[in-house]
Write a structure and sequence with these properties.
The structure holds two protein chains of two kinds. Chain A is α+β, with helices and mostly antiparallel strands. Helices cover about 15% and strands about 30% of the residues of chain A. Chain A folds into two domains: about 170 residues, no CATH class; about 120 residues, Cyclophilin-like (Cyclophilin, Beta Barrel). In chain A, a hairpin with a 7-residue loop joins strand 15 and strand 16. Classes of the chains: A alpha+beta, B alpha+beta. Chain A: GO terms for molecular function: ATP binding; hydrolase activity.
């Protein structure tokens, strides 16, 4: 059981998302950096999809109301436990009264707190993810607020005193900081060929800037105007997180986890699943570059991501056994 | 009816989009309802998202999309239009006033009176083509061609739940307060999405909807 002291900007309870209800207009929600949440859960011996807290740009703090064990993952938020700095990708146990505080994100956008046993919020339509637009799931269907109390499943409470983490040398992939250039791989979609070869080349060679008005719904990009050879009025069709749309402004928007399930703007492509967590950590104002890949290549990358999580599970299993 | 051709395209590494071109046609949409039902149970398919003249299929990440695409073409040739008219739902509307702020401007842009717009909008029996965009939002076919209105150049940041709206050749009712670029001509108290109901979405594809005139404010 923990009490939120400061919520930061729009911190929410998230799991790996709500699937299977897009046909009634309910999007997936879930952790923007799903890899970070998975790793945090794996470090604790939780199921990969246990519910954790996603804090955007840090600023979250909470007090333990009973002995709890947590894992810290994702962005470098300069977190402290009772004032002592906590490393990134770290597991520690808190006694009642101890306070964990995230500073402002120094690198990356989103920090995650997983807890042994997972946060116990009601499952709504098969998931504990907060659907902010729908106003359901997570903690009362909304962002966390000062004074909110979150509980864990009683049977899973873990009073052991754990204190370990991942080393940057062994897992360099997890220390990518998101402030430089982020390369996103994408699979071209239907309207990609509505653009001339020059325009398509421009899309892939441009360093696109992430606009400040980017959030869990979508990432707006600034760069040269992309003009199609034909203007189409499309009927509304299903879209996915990662879909790169091109509205009439000529500047791409990447649809993210809180996006609509259906849309009608032309689409250049879909960012591969494995790169969405990296996009979620790319800082506002930083630069994105796009690289075209095949769907088969993308599937191979996804398998490597799963392998990474499995390797972390194996490498840390003895620490959890204490 | 001759079956329109379909285009199948990749949507990332584990999804395919199958679609036909407009204008909106109920005959074409009936084929997509049928395709949705068949595809729902296909091996490897994890989720389907019905659109207007389209169906998005999400597959297990290990599925081979090329094989699935060929199979979809065959399925399209085999299926017949889905039968069934669905339920008829009545939605009382307060047209105009504070909850229908675009009504006057929309009427003026078409050279119609407010009364004529209300009459044209409340006359047809609409069909729910698909649900999406937001929880429970219906894409309604059947709008009178005289009311077809291109979406606003810039979307409003906040459109209230229950707003009765027009976007292009589609009609709809906002199911959750949210941003929208559609024109607001009225408001209803009918809730299109309610998690406390056994079926949270009031409408299903294939259902029919009639707008009735509760009140008109100039």
């Amino acid at each position: 059981m923990i009490r939120i002291l400061t919520p930061g900007i729009g911190a929410t309870v998230q799991d790996l998302g709500r699937r299977g209800y897009a046909n009634i207009g309910i999007g997936c929600s879930g952790a923007m950096d799903r890899r970070a949440l998975r790793v945090a859960n794996v470090l604790l011996g939780n199921a990969d999809g246990a519910a954790g807290i996603e804090a955007t740009l840090g600023g979250l703090s909470f007090e333990a109301l009973e002995p709890v064990t947590i894992a810290l993952a994702g962005a470098d938020t300069g977190a402290t436990l009772d004032g002592r700095p906590l490393p990134r990708w770290w597991v520690c146990s808190l006694l009642p009264g101890q306070v964990l505080r995230m500073g402002h994100s120094r690198t990356g956008m989103r920090g995650y707190i997983a807890i042994a046993g997972g946060f116990e919020v009601p499952e709504v339509l098969g998931s504990r993810a907060t659907d902010v637009k729908g106003g359901f799931g997570g903690h009362d269907g909304r962002a966390l607020d000062t004074g909110d109390i979150l509980t864990t499943a009683a049977a899973a409470r873990d009073p052991r005193n754990l204190n370990f983490g991942l080393s940057p040398r062994a897992w360099p992939d997890l220390w990518v900081d998101g402030s430089g250039e982020t390369e996103l791989r994408f699979v071209p979609a239907k309207e990609w060929t509505d653009y001339t070869q020059e325009t398509r080349a421009l899309f892939c060679t441009t360093g696109w800037t992430i606009e400040p008005a980017s959030n869990r719904i979508g990432y707006r990009l600034d760069g040269p105007e992309m003009v199609p050879t034909v203007r189409r009025e499309l009927l509304s069709h299903g879209i996915l997180p990662g879909t790169i749309q091109l509205p009439p402004s000529g500047r791409p928007v990447i649809q993210m986890l809180d996006a609509n399930t259906v849309g009608g703007y032309p689409k250049l492509g879909v960012v591969i699943d494995a790169d969405l967590p990296r996009l979620a950590q790319a800082t506002l104002g930083s630069t994105l570059r796009f690289r075209e890949v095949s769907a088969a290549d993308a599937r191979a990358v996804r398998r490597r991501e799963d392998d990474l999580v499995s390797a972390i599970r194996r490498a840390t299993s003895h620490q959890r056994k204490g | 009816m001759t079956k329109p051709p379909v285009l199948i395209s990749e949507m990332g590494e584990s999804a395919l989009l199958i679609q036909s071109e407009g204008p909106m046609s109920l005959d074409v949409q009936r084929l997509y309802w049928a395709l949705d039902r068949v595809c729902h149970d296909l091996p490897g398919v994890t989720e389907t998202v019905l659109g207007v003249h389209s169906l998005l299929l999400r597959f297990d990440p290990q599925a081979e999309l090329a094989d699935a695409a060929a199979h979809l073409q065959d399925l399209w040739q085999e299926i017949g239009p889905a039968e069934g008219r669905g339920r008829l739902v009545e939605v009382p509307v307060h047209y105009g006033g504070a909850g229908g702020e675009d009504l006057q401007e929309l009427a003026a842009s078409h050279g119609l009176s407010v009364g004529e717009v209300v009459e044209l909008h409340s006359a047809p029996t609409y069909i729910v083509f698909a649900l999406g965009s937001q929880p429970g939002f219906p894409y309604l076919g059947g709008l009178d061609p005289r009311l077809v209105t291109a979406r606003r150049a810039s979307p409003r940041q906040r459109v209230e739940e229950g707003s009765v709206v027009i976007g292009g050749e589609q009609a709809g009712v906002i199911a959750r307060t949210s941003p929208s670029g559609w024109h607001i001509i009225g408001a209803t108290r009918v809730r299109l999405f309610d998690l406390d109901r056994e079926e949270p979405a009031l409408l299903q594809p294939g259902d029919q909807l009639r707008f009735s005139v509760e009140k008109v404010s100039e």
